[in-house]
Structures are given as structure tokens and as C-alpha cells.
């Protein structure tokens, strides 16, 4: 595998071919904010907060760094007026859904985002897909998934699976940037199997 030399925020960075800009930056402790990224999960590209400016032979563009592969002589800027503006707009939209998320509130301070810009639609879930992908790819249980499309899209725990798998796991709770995964699980339990958690061995 060949090594690629690029530049991130003025620093020469080496990365293996096939790595993303985000991976190259993280290997040099250069911070790029992320909300839907997890190093062990398939990249998803949902939140767009990791947007960066790239320049190739004088031509500038903006790309999602958790998906975009490194390339020879690429010049990357993790902050610029446009990058900050886009991140601010993304955060203002997400804060309408999850205004009390510590992670969002912290980023909002960094980028000057107004958490009251949009009318509240507190679904709490920002659709980052971390819980869904973690449960499918790492735990291989598929106890939680997305339902519906567009503005009606949301996560849903499958009671038949959740009642046997989730109580002893709960690993997705700490991944969730808004605590929506935890809240949705407990709501599912209260409505669908109150007091009826089963050990996985009981379901055979
Ligand atoms: S419940 Fe949390 S982890 Fe799951 S998709 Fe929503 S915000 Fe992401
Ligand atoms: S972290 Fe890259 S799109 Fe979410």
C-alpha cells in the first residue's frame, strides 16, 4: 500500500492510500469535529459536520472528511470562513432537535451557533445512525433500526429483540450524542415489554 503525502492546516501529513482525510488528520492529532463517525463502524456521512476545504492545483472544494480519501498533494484546511459557516448552520438545525445535547452545545459555542435559530422540534435523535450501525455491525443484533423517511425518519427498537438483548448490553447509549437511544429504549420497554426483560438464553 503506497503512502500519500498531503498537507493539513499547513502541516505535512503522511497517510496510507485509501485512508480518509479524517483518519489522516486524527493520526496527527488535528481535530475535526464529528457526530456520526466511529472508528470501528462503516463511514456514514450523515451529519456533514466534518466538512473541510480541500485544494487541488489551485481549485478549492468542500468535502466530507470522514468519506473523502487522501490524495497526493491535497491541501486541506479544517477551518475557514465557509467551513465554520456551514458547521454553524448544521449545528443550528441539529440543536432544534436536541437543544440540551452537551456535545452539540459545546460545538455551538465553538462555532457561534444560535441554538434558538429554529423552532424546536425536539425529536432528540439527530439521526447520526451510531446506535443502529453499532448494533448491526459490532453486536450483530439489529435490535434498533431506522423507520420512515425524510422528516418522519426516526429510530425504533424492535421489542422482540430488545427484550432479550438490550438490558445486558446498552452499549449504544454512551455512543449517542443526545441520549435519544437510551430514552427510546426505555420507552420501548415501558410500552412493549414492561418488566418482561428476558435473558438471551430464555428466548431459544
Ligand atoms: S438515537 Fe442517538 S445514536 Fe441513535 S441515531 Fe439517534 S442520535 Fe444517533
Ligand atoms: S462525521 Fe463525517 S459526516 Fe458525520
How many discrete structural domains? 2
Shape: globular
Task: Output the strand order for the largest sheet.
Answer: 2-1-5-3-4
Distance between the termini: 46 Å
The hetero compounds bound to this protein are: iron/sulfur cluster, FE2/S2 (inorganic) cluster
Please indicate the percent range of residues in DSSP E strands (runs of 2 or more).
15-25%
| Spans of at least 5 consecutive residues with low confidence | none
Features:
Alpha-Beta Plaits; 5-stranded mixed β-sheet; two-stranded antiparallel sheet; 31% helix; binds iron/sulfur cluster; 204 residues; alpha+beta
Short description, anyone?
This protein is an alpha+beta fold and 204 residues long. It is built from six helices and seven strands; from the N terminus they run ββαβββαααββαα. The chain has a five-stranded mixed sheet with strand order 2-1-5-3-4, sandwiched between helices. Strands 6-7 form a two-stranded antiparallel ribbon.
Can you give a write-up of this model?
With 204 residues, the protein is an alpha+beta fold. It has 2 domains: 3-79, Ubiquitin-like (UB roll), CATH 3.10.20.740; 130-203, Alpha-Beta Plaits (2-Layer Sandwich), CATH 3.30.70. 31% of the residues lie in helices and 17% in strands. Helix 2 runs antiparallel to helix 3. The termini are far apart. The mean pLDDT is 94. The protein binds iron/sulfur cluster and FE2/S2 (inorganic) cluster. Iron/sulfur cluster binds next to helix 4 and helix 6.
Topology:
Layout: E1 3-8, E2 11-16, H1 21-27, E3 51-56, E4 59-64, E5 75-77, H2 81-97, H3 102-111, H4 130-138, E6 144-147, E7 154-157, H5 159-165, H6 180-192
Parallel strand pairs: 1-5
Antiparallel strand pairs: 1-2, 3-4, 3-5, 6-7
Helix pairs in contact: 2-3
The chain binds iron/sulfur cluster (SF4) and FE2/S2 (inorganic) cluster (FES).
FE2/S2 (inorganic) cluster binds near residues 35, 36 and 47.
Amino acid at each position: 500500500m503506497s503512502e500519500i503525502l498531503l498537507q493539513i492546516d499547513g502541516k505535512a501529513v503522511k497517510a496510507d492510500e485509501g485512508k480518509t482525510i479524517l483518519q489522516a488528520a486524527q493520526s496527527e492529532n488535528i481535530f475535526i469535529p464529528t457526530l456520526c463517525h466511529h472508528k470501528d463502524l462503516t463511514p456514514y456521512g450523515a451529519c456533514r459536520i466534518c466538512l473541510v476545504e480541500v485544494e487541488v492545483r489551485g481549485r478549492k472544494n468542500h468535502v466530507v472528511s470522514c468519506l473523502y480519501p487522501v490524495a497526493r498533494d491535497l491541501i486541506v484546511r479544517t477551518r475557514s470562513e465557509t467551513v465554520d459557516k456551514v458547521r454553524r448552520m448544521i449545528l443550528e438545525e441539529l440543536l432544534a432537535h436536541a437543544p440540551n445535547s452537551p456535545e452539540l452545545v459545546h460545538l455551538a459555542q465553538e462555532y457561534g451557533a444560535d441554538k434558538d435559530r429554529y423552532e424546536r422540534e425536539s425529536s432528540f435523535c439527530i439521526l447520526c445512525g451510531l446506535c443502529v450501525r453499532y448494533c448491526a455491525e459490532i453486536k450483530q443484533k439489529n435490535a434498533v433500526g431506522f423507520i420512515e423517511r425524510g422528516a418522519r425518519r426516526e429510530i425504533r427498537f424492535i421489542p422482540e429483540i430488545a427484550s432479550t438483548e438490550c438490558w445486558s448490553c446498552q452499549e449504544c447509549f454512551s455512543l449517542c450524542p443526545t441520549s435519544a437511544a437510551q430514552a427510546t429504549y426505555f420507552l420501548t420497554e415501558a410500552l412493549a415489554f414492561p418488566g418482561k426483560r428476558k435473558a438471551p438464553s430464555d428466548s431459544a
